[in-house]
Specification:
This protein is α/β, with parallel strands linked by helices. The chain has 9 helices and 20 strands. Strand 17, helix 7 and strand 18 form a beta-alpha-beta unit. Bound molecules: zinc ion. The site of zinc ion has 5 residues, from helix 3.
Amino acid sequence: MRTDLLKHLGRGLLAVAAASCLTLAHGRSPGPAVIQIVNGNEPGIGFNDPSPALPVGGNTAATVGGQRLAVFQYAANLWGTKLKSDVPITILSTFEPLPCTATGATLGAAGAISVWSDFPGAEKPGTWYSSALANKLAGEDIDPVPSPTGDDLDIVAFFNSDLGQPDCLAGSGFYLGLDGLAPAGQIDLLTTILHEFGHGLGFQTFTSGRTGNQLAGQPSIWDHYLYDPAQNKTWVKMTAAERATSGITPRNLQWYGNTVIGKAAAVLDRGTPELFLTGPGLDRNVLIGTALFGPQIDSRDDQLSAQIGQVVDQVNGTGLACTPLSAANAAAVRGKIALVDRGTCGFTVKVKNAQDAGARAVIVSDNVPGGPPPDLGGVDPTITIPAVRVSLEDGTALKASLATPSKFGNYGVLSFNTQKLAGADYGKRVFMFTPNPFQQGSSVSHFDTSAKPNLLMEPFLNAGQPIAVSAPKDLTFELLKDIGW
Ligand SMILES: [Zn+2]
């Protein structure tokens, strides 16, 4: 059974899709995969752009088009050294104008052209596999999708040729070097392509994360490995409504595949900063964003445990702490963890004011609903106390607890949990990206942004991502192995 995906492919970043399952019961092992880049551009544009180019970062092609193609081929070769398949993987690739403004742009996208189920070699019945993986498992080309070039296409990839023009994220542009050393402001094309090819090879579920509805009534191979500990079920065992809930429960959904679990400790840093809150109606860990300024909550620190004092300096009962604290507010937070609200001024201003008033740490309560709480940005080398952000929901619950009469009061415990990897749970199961509200094109089919160091398949391009797809630098290939590669 086959379903074409091309019609599902918008011109935005592709939602992720899926694959499932283990090794193949064929008599012999396939060799290294050959990945072919098919140039889909018309003469004179995109890969055929004849503008002369100077060598950059090991890319010595003499034209802009040639350098673009060299980056694609480099990414294809890097993936090809990892993957095993007897069937060539063919990627229809173009560089063309995509939606853009002066301040925002679609960088590009890639995805499987078709999905298959119940083919010879499919490990899980009634389950969608992307075509490149289906071919590998079947040991033959089962998806001879006709193309204008006569190639049997598996993946389509398109990238924005206008990037960096005045009307398209002005001043940016793709870095065409092969060394991962994009200068500030430029976007590393190689990293971007490695990421997008990852999706096309199977790093995505074809089930809708937003509605939970399966593609044509069948699960994707991914859904066998997406485990939700809050519901104690994998996606394949859930109703659509349960999957939709799972897709917006932050830092909960996990990858439950043995290859990723087995390599997680070799890739991810040990330790996760945590905040435990106690008080009437509380007593639980809450999700936090950490500050990019001030002391980090890491293994160098002892656990910080202190009472919580709320700043209230606004008539509506919130505390912005944008000005030096009043005597009453200073008395409320001295020697304690100060609770302040997000808004009006920068995070460093709030934290500095609390620090000046004698607070030992700061909790910033978000002012918009949803989660997980993003990190606190800003720079101020004079800040010497740790700060974290909690969600509006958790901040509101903390305030309600503070307002409840109690003999013991409210405490916060900031600690560094070395029993957990950065971006995984106690069982080394890596979190998937499931923010609330749902982010189309990003939710579910990426690793969570809490992973440290950054992983290739996080939803946002991060500076300094390694040019690698496998352990000990990354876990993308390991996830693909779990689904059958
Ligand atoms: Zn992606």
